[in-house]
Amino acid sequence: MKTRTILHVDMDAFYASIEMLEDPALRDKPVIVGGIPEKRGVVAAASYEVRKYGVHSAMSSYQAKKLCPQAIFISPRMGLYARYSKRIFAILREYTPLVEPISIDEAFLDVTGSRNLFGPGSQIGRTIKRRIREELGLTASIGVATNKFLAKLASDLEKPDGFVVIPPETATARLADLPVGKLWGVGQVLQRELARQGVHKIRDLLVLPVERLEAIAGSHSRRLRELARGIDTRPVVVGEASKSIGAETTFTKDISETRRLFAELDALATRVAKRLRKEGYRAHTIQLKARYADFTTVTRAVTIPVPSASTQTLMRTARDLLQTRLDRHGRPLRLLGVSASGLVRPAEGEPELFPDRQREQDERVDHLLDALQDKYGAQKIWRGYQRREEDA
Ligand SMILES: [Mg+2]
To answer: The whole model's pTM is what?
Structure first.
């Protein structure tokens, strides 16, 4: 098999770095981008100055403020970050068409076919890093390796402003002393199970008898053994497969009543469906995100038989996930989110074998509502049984 060259590019403290770039007075200050503590917000990005205090993203802003009282809180400006992101991805795509976006500030690149033109992967990586710094004033951490797993691992090793190349012959040595949690698919539960078998580092996993690993990790065991040896054959998937469109809301007070949670979900599903339609997508997968009062966050997803951008379908699916897939037992929630992924553009797909009458009708209503809302504003035009929701 031909040796591939994969890059993983990941911007450093992306939102916070942009805010510091836009306002030089914020430089070297403990900057937190996220919701304000008084409104029960969550940290979306933390500058490296504030991370020293133990602040990290996804932590509650309240807790972050306790750790670093002098922190400066800034509300996210997603439009601004998206504009920076666009410029970064434009640079990446100059070096290969094989770019897989993971998020607004992170991507895999397969530059195997670009080496003749731009030099070896390390050189392409260095060039991209330099251009992002010179043209945008931001730093990226980049990992270069022969597959996605190693490239992502590499970009993380010397973050921020990191640049690490893992040549295939050094992969096993690089991996040996890292904790097994670094392997994709090894979450806390599996990690605990492995620890019970004396497996803490990746090197331990390699000497664990196959049957014992299978007993713990089941069908994952083969892939785990491959990853532990630095083998990962997953291709870089171009385009929007990993893109998702979502909306979430943090309540000013926790909500436990199902009826009220449904109303919140309807509003979120409406927003997501509308954005899907606006961008010309239908989604295969709908995901529900719920956060309990103690900050435990769970996600539940379902793949729907026919990809959809219908408000009705998204609402029904989200409600269904909340009711049947969440072991809530009446516990109150502080946050709900709905997101759509596995996005396809209807025109690109196969011709529809089973055109769906109900969906066609739903979509006609959706389009009519979109047009009216664009013209008269969302406040005035609303489905009869929905109530208006404030965006968090
Ligand atoms: Mg990042």
So the answer is: 0.66
CA dist., res. 160 & res. 157, Å (int): 9
Q: Return d(Cα 221, Cα 210) in angstroms, integer.
A: 8
The model's pLDDT over 327-350, given as tens digits with 9 standing for 90+, comes to 788 899 999 999 998 777 654 433
Distance 85 CA to ligand 1 centre (A): 11
Q: How far is the CA of 275 from the centre of ligand 1 (A)?
A: 24
Name the residues annotated as catalytic: 106
Write out pLDDT tens, residues 27-83.
989 999 988 888 777 888 899 999 999 999 878 889 999 999 999 999 888 788 888
Whether 61 and 32 have beta carbons less than 8 Å apart is answered as yes
CA 159 to ligand 1 center in whole angstroms: 10
261 lies in the same domain as 334: yes
Structural domain boundaries, residue 279 = 244-373
Tokens standing for residue 39: 């409104």
Interval between CA 15 and ligand 1 midpoint (Å): 9
Residue 328: which CATH number?
Answer: 3.30.1490.100
